[in-house]
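Supplementary Methods. Inverse-folding protocol.

Structures were first reduced to a discrete structure-token string of length 403. This string, shown here, constituted the complete conditioning input.
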């Protein structure tokens, strides 16, 4: 039993607080050196931060997702790469628990929850990011196996993954070919994981490339769901996490900005007495609360099952990440020249906020999907559905979805 299983909500939050304080002390050096810190992840897993979406018997239980948001936001406020790594650990655990056959689940689920095995969630390819239908990874059936060939990039845990859940086309690389999601053992012949380019944001995140050259994958390793639909279900969880990271960045921007405004003087008074600084702080405060409310609403829809409300999740992810970028920029401005000090907290927040507008669907693809669904709904019923229409993940998949 993990520590979290035996603790109440307040105790879990206290454990997360202590964890965040410990992480905050290391954050600058991890960011500077772009260091992947396995020890801190082990500790997060031991505290039960991955297990939070399961009950004692390792059955899925999403009722504690608001707590997942709170913990993720707090960790992201000090060092978002670790919040994201714990998020990917929960995401692959979720997919295994919901869609994998018992033998595959037995092999990887507990090990992932306890931090003994890392699993990747692999969608993006060098020539297919937002346009996922353009991917060229293909699985061809050969007796009791699939033979997998292709390449994925920008993938979390790629250099250290024990296994990867890989979205692939079936039999053909045609744009509209059927899709499948395969749990691939990364120790298989022909499977390779490598570190990717050094990033300017989310530095220290374990991320990179996965290559598959005629990898033999048992047919029983396929998730029991249409590949695209299953991965989109998981992606919705990742998008809610992305909104939570953005909330953490906004909260941190507010913390550092208020402190600076109250302690820095100009013209004989605190800069926080200047209306222009007060307006910045007021808008930043409103932005944080807006992002948090939206993230919580998205979380609630996910807890209801079936992958949540795609529109509300898109609104939360897009709005929170755009607000994080805007207000971490304002935070730098409040700091003046000091805001530009390389690797300082406020400068790190700004770089990390940029990344949140890119992964889990860029802001452009979320606004496009939201607008397109509204127009399509109007064409169908003459009024565009309810103010915030919801679509089930079982609807025919969009051609563009944005990993
Ligand atoms: C830190 C980090 C972690 C990541 N982790 C993972 C992971 O674990 N697994 C994984 O599979 N992927 C991961 N990714 C990849 C990420 O999901 C993609 O980068 C993202 O989906 C965008 O794809 P792209 O980079 O190829 O950009 P492109 O698709 O090339 O987009 C380039 C630009 O064109 C715009 N654009 C493209 N198409 C449209 C359109 N139809 N309408 C409007 N605008 C459009 C985009 O908004 C963007 O501004 C990660 C990325 C980062 C930065």
């Amino acid at each position: 039993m993990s520590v979290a299983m035996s603790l109440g909500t307040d105790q879990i939050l206290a454990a997360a607080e202590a964890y965040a304080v410990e992480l905050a002390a290391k954050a600058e050096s991890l960011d500077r050196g772009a260091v992947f810190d396995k020890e801190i992840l082990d500790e997060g897993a031991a505290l039960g931060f991955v297990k939070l979406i399961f009950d004692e018997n390792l059955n899925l239980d999403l009722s504690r997702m608001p707590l997942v948001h709170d913990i993720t936001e707090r960790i992201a406020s000090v060092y978002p790469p670790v919040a994201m790594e714990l998020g990917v650990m929960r995401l692959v655990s979720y997919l295994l628990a919901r869609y994998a056959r018992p033998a595959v689940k037995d092999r990887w689920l507990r090990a992932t929850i306890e931090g003994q095995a890392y699993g990747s969630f692999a969608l993006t390819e060098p020539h297919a990011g937002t346009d996922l239908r353009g991917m060229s990874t293909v699985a061809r059936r050969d007796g009791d196996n699939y033979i997998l060939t292709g390449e994925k990039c920008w993938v979390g845990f790629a250099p250290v993954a024990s296994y990867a859940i890989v979205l692939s086309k079936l039999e053909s690389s045609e744009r509209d070919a059927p899709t499948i999601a395969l749990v691939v053992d990364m120790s298989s012949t022909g499977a390779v994981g490598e570190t990717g380019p050094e990033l300017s944001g989310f530095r220290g995140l374990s991320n990179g490339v996965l290559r598959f050259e005629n990898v033999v994958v048992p047919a029983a390793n396929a998730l029991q769901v249409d590949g695209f639909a299953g991965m989109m279900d998981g992606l919705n969880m990742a998008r809610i996490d992305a909104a939570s990271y953005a909330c953490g960045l906004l909260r941190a921007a507010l913390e550092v900005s208020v402190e600076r405004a109250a302690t820095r003087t100009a013209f004989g008074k605190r800069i926080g007495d200047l209306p222009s600084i007060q307006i910045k702080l007021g808008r930043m405060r409103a932005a944080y609360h807006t992002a948090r409310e939206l993230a919580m609403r998205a979380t609630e829809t996910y807890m209801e099952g079936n992958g949540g409300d795609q529109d509300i999740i898109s609104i939360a992810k897009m709005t929170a990440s755009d607000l994080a970028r805007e207000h971490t920029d304002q935070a730098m401005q409040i700091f003046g020249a000091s805001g530009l000090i390389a690797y300082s907290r406020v400068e790190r927040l700004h770089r990390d906020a940029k990344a949140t507008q890119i992964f889990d669907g860029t802001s452009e693809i979320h606004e496009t999907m939201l607008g397109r669904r509204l127009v399509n709904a109007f064409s169908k019923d003459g009024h565009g559905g309810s103010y915030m229409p919801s679509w089930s993940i079982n609807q025919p998949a969009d051609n563009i979805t944005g990993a």
